[in-house]
Amino acid sequence: MQAVQIDSTSALLILCAFGVAWLAWGWYLGRKNKTLDDFALAGRNVGFALATATAMATWITSNTTLVAPQLTLQFGVWGMLGYSMAALGLLLFAPLAERIRKLMPHGFTSGDFILARYGRAAWAVFIIISLCYALGWLVSLSMAGGLLLSALSDLSYLTGMTAILLICVGYTLMGGLRAVIATDFVQSIVIIIGVVVIAVVCINTVSFETLHTELSARQPELLNLLFPAAIMFFFNNVFFGIGEIFHSNVWWSRAFAFAPGIGRRSYFTAGLLWLPIPIVTGFVALAAVTLGVVPPSPDMVGPMVAAKLLGDIGAVFVFIVVFSALASSMDSLLAATSDLLTQDVFRKLLRPDSDDMSLLKASKVIIVLLGLATWLISLPKLATLGALLNFTGAFVASTIWPIVYGIFDRRLTGKWAALAMTLGTVSGLCGYFLVGFYVAAIVSCSVSLLVCRVGLARATTLFDWQQLQEAPRVLK
Predict the structure, then answer these.
(1) Which family does it belong to (predicted)?
(2) Backbone Cα Rg of the chain
């Protein structure tokens, strides 16, 4: 028995409504952007409510709404609990965000910090890791848009994937980070309401007792708390989530954009609000067995179960909720990656004498190019969203300790930071291909920590924090 689908006309109307609304709002907010700081960092004065909403909405991605249910169906209870541990990334980044704002009051990107703190070699490794992750996340989000539309309506994967890219590129291009944060605020409200409604309907339709009985009889391994691969996934996802946030310019750009004193409170609150959402979306996926929903792809189980529970109107509701979740992450990633490429590649390597207006134009061109590159790579459906995302775990987990030690300990040098990120990434990839995706981040983080500890033990100099007060923008 398949879930209810939206007819193609209704699906197109929803897409058009989304597109017109977000593009118009992006244009309206973009009128206030007069400088590069306005476009890239929303004037560096974002308040608590908007800061919390954008942090939470950005972290409610294709992972939370599509991959968390997929992994719950694969790993059971540990799948939903493991995904909820990604909240630790937001919670632990809270004190880092405050420290970053104080150390680098004029910083733009995470690359600014790495270059000033560790030098060119570590900076080059970090930029490669950051761009690999950003592209992987962008592709997963565009794929998710295509999968969502094809699973819930008669429209094709290509249509959905193209639509979400066009809409997000459009309003990000017109409004910059100011538009991204404003739309995130609305999208976070839509997402929270949607998740609560779907969870309540699921509990009322499929009781806990019925769900437990069905799973015990038909898929008992999903309730097994001693499932070895699931336990490994639990711990792997902790380090994956922390690495994703600690290194990504999505979160650093917000640390620079939030008003002084806002970062710690907003990230901590966002983490607490986000924590239960993967558990709820994962729980919904377990009802697939009872409801007889057989998704065409494992990463579509969540939306299809929700649409089945809510019926015709519910399918539209689910579509809007998941589409909001995808858009709230894609716009943030487009803006942050554009900043990284503009400041760390265009300005530092290609045009060191560029003025703010030249950089603003370059940033907008890069947003369009990022959208085009993502569309081309997403044309063939490369893998499930879970497999694609966890591949990047080997990259991002290697950056955790170089960043933590770089922010709080003056002893670690650039040579050891570069070595930690390189060896961590390589070893994590080996674990990914030789063992499984659920060990990549653990292996990468462990090797990186070991290298950092050796570097600290052999340290003979101390870094001067004053060097971070004026973030460098040109390579020496």
Answers:
(1) Belongs to the sodium:solute symporter (SSF) (TC 2.A.21) family.
(2) 22
